[in-house]
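User: Just a sanity check before I run the rest of the batch. Below are the structure tokens for the first item. I only need the designed sequence back.
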């Protein structure tokens, strides 16, 4: 099923039918965010350089963003005025690697102008460029990757490549996070109970002597077989609480999914919406919470308890 869905999605992307249908009914397929202009203006007023890098062509980008920035208090203002630099047809993740030839876009026709842009020429604000690379962008703006916060919604094409190739700070947008948080609120008691049972089970194994069998209990602790049975029951109950047909995006039973592991490893920040940045001052310094390293101890301490 995954392969069929992947082929179908790749096909409608390549053939252009997805974007064509989207433009035919923007109200249905595009969710507007009224605070987006405010957030971008706030960043630029705070002397931050804001750039846009999209894989879409100029024609589609222009129609889509014209709709997204069309609000009563922004009428007559072009969406281009919210960005310092604009790159279309960036071909990510290639944009973060060797990149492609950088050329200027004719905004009237949507075609590419002849000749490529050199480093000496530099980039002009409010103009639209096609191709390029993140390395060229860093040279033009005079910044290194660690001074750039890149916001994207694709774990591989946006986050992993920008982190590995340019060492950028990364912000992963995960729209499903709203449902994940709500689901966690509804089922967190199962996880706390499971954690408690696993702690008791580890204590029971720790205090068991080599002469004891699995069914023998330690003073003050339940039998190991009972604990294992209780853990299975709680795990089954957790599986029944799936909130979607395909299950959670971030968890598989009590464990993290591969996607969640990559998100926590490569994304410095992640949220359901980049508008979350509005809740923090522009000079706010995000610091990761302290996490302990799991340690496995195997000391032998004979117990006075008997079976």
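Assistant: Here's the designed sequence for the first item:
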């Amino acid at each position: 099923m995954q392969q069929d869905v992947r082929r179908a999605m790749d096909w409608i992307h390549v053939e252009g039918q997805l974007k064509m249908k989207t433009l035919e009914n923007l109200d249905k397929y595009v969710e507007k965010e009224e605070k987006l202009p405010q957030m971008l203006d706030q960043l630029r007023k705070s002397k931050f350089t804001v750039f846009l890098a999209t894989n879409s062509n100029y024609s589609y980008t222009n129609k889509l963003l014209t709709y997204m920035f069309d609000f009563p208090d922004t009428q007559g203002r072009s969406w281009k005025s919210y960005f310092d630099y604009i790159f279309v047809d960036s071909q990510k993740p290639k944009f973060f690697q060797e990149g492609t030839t950088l050329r200027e876009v004719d905004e009237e026709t949507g075609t590419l102008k002849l000749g490529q842009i050199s480093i000496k020429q530099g980039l002009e604000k409010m103009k639209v460029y096609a191709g390029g690379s993140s390395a060229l962008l860093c040279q033009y703006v005079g910044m290194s990757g660690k001074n750039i916060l890149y916001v994207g919604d694709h774990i591989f094409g946006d986050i992993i490549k920008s982190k590995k190739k340019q060492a950028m700070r990364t912000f992963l947008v995960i729209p499903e996070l709203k449902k994940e948080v709500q689901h966690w609120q509804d089922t967190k008691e199962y996880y706390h109970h499971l954690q408690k049972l696993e702690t008791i089970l580890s204590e029971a194994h720790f205090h068991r002597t080599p002469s004891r069998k699995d069914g023998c209990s330690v003073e003050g602790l339940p039998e190991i077989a009972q604990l294992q049975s209780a853990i299975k029951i709680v795990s089954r109950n957790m599986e029944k609480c799936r909130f979607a047909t395909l299950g959670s995006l971030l968890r598989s039973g009590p464990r993290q999914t591969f996607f969640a592991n990559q998100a926590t490893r490569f994304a410095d920040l992640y949220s359901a919406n980049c508008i979350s940045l509005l809740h923090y001052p522009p000079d706010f310094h995000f610091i990761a919470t302290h996490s302990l390293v799991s340690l496995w101890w195997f000391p032998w301490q004979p117990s006075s308890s008997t079976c």
